[in-house]
Amino acid sequence: MARRKESYIFTSEKKKSGFFGNFLMVVLMLLAVAITCILLNVASNSKVLLNQEKVSIMSLDKTYEGFSVLHISDLQASSMGQDYDTWKGLLNAKTYHAVVLSGDMVGLTGDYAPLVSLIGILTELNAKAPIYFVAGDEDPAPIVSTVTTSELAPWVQEAQKAGAIYLDAPISQAVGKKTVWFVPEYLYSIDASGMASVLEVQKTNMEADGKQYDMQGAEAYQSLGQRIDTMNKTTEAIKTMLSTDIQIAVSHVPLDSDYIRTSLEWADTEKVFNFRNISLLLAGHYCGGQWRVPRQGPLYVPEFGWMPEDDGIVGMQRVNSINQYISGGIGASDIYPMKGRMFNTPSITILKLTARIE
Q1: Sign of CA dihedral 277, 69, 71, 316
Q2: N or C end of the chain: which has fewer CB within 10 A?
Q3: CA torsion sign, 304 to 305 to 311 to 313?
Q4: Phi/psi of residue 152, nearest 5 degrees
Q5: Looking at the domain assignment, is residue 7 inside a domain?
C-alpha cells in the first residue's frame, strides 16, 4: 500500500520560530557586549592612573634638574578625593616638590568636602610639598562681594584652612638657592602696576560719588579692594623675580596654539616677567575628552568637534618654546552633552624638569 503523503501544517510556524530565535540571540549578544562595556568602564573609573612626564628645558640650571610637580585637575567633587587608600597607593614613596590643582576641583555642585579631604591626604603623604590651586570655570566664584564686605568664597577659605595656597598672584618656592614661581597665567597679559593705579582711581571716584554706600555700587566697590590687593601683590612679586628663576604658569582652560604664538610674539623680552619666560604651563578643563573611543581618542569635544586628536585636549603639547601640559582630570565636566567618563580612566601626572632633550 502506498505511503500516504504527510502534510506539515506547522511549517510556517517553525520558520517563524527560527527567525525569532536568531533575533533573540543577536539581542542577547548585544546585551552581553553592553554589560561588559559597562563593567569595564566602571572598573576603569574606579582607579586613578599616575602618569610621569619629563619637561625638557634648554640650558636648565642644574639646581632645578629633577624638580617635580604633581599636577591634579578637575576633581569635580568626585568621592575619589576622599579615598585615602587610592592616593596612598599612587603617591607613596613618589618624589615631587609641589602640587598644582588646576581648577574645577569643586565644580557646579559647590561641594568642597572632597577637595578639602584631598588636600588633607596630600599634606599627610608629603608635608614638604606646597599645594597651589586656582579656580576653574565650573567652580563657584572664588571671591564673594556683598554691600559690606568682599572676601574669598567659603570653598577657597576651607581649602586654605586645610593647608593649600590660593594662587591669585605669583608665589615663590625656594629650590636650593634658586626660586621657582607659580603664576596665574592671565597675569602675563596684564600690566599689574598700571592696573592697580587704574583701580585706585576708580575706587577714589566711587568714594567721591558716595557709591560705597549705594546699594547698586557697594558690591562693586567692595570687590575693588580684592582686585587692587591682587595687583599690588603681583607688582611686588615681579620686582623680586630674577632671570635665573623658573616660571610655571597655571591656567584652568588650556591656551590654544594661536594664542600662545601671539603671546610669544608680543612678549616684552626686556622684562623678566614675560610670556617667553614660562618654562611650563599647566591646565585641565577638557577631562581628556570625557568619552573616548578605545585606541582612537575623544568622541566629541566642544570647540573641537567630533573625533578630534588629543593635541590641545590632553597630554604634553609643545608650541614653539612653551611646554603646555593638559591634565586628563579625575571627574566629569558639564561642558559635555555626554555625562560621566567613558573608557577614560581618571589620571594625575608628575612632571619632572630636566635639561635633557629627548
Answers
A1: positive
A2: N
A3: positive
A4: -65, 145
A5: no
Q: Same structural domain for residues 312 and 258?
A: yes
Q: What is the pLDDT of residues 58-94, one digit of tens each?
A: 999 999 999 999 999 999 999 999 999 999 999 999 9
Over residues 171-211, the pLDDT tens digits come to 999 999 999 999 999 999 999 999 999 999 999 998 888 87
What pTM was estimated for this model as a whole? 0.88
Side chain identity, residue 120: G
Q: Which CATH number goes with the domain that contains 136?
A: 3.60.21
Q: What is the mean pLDDT of residues 47-57?
A: 96
Question: Could you tell me if residue 32 is inside a domain?
Answer: yes
Give me 314's grid cell. Answer: 590632553
What sign does the CA torsion over 240, 244, 245, 249 have? positive
How far is the C-alpha of 152 from the C-alpha of 32, rounded, in Å? 51
Note down the domain range covering 22.
12-45
Phi and psi of 39, rounded to 5°? -65, -40
Q: How far apart are CA 233 and CA 47, in angstroms?
A: 39
Give the CA dihedral 327, 55, 350, 76, nearest 10 degrees: -20
Rounded Cα–Cα distance for residues 95 and 125 (Å): 11
Q: Are 27 and 172 within one domain?
A: no
Give the separation between CA 196 and CA 202, rounded to whole angstroms: 10
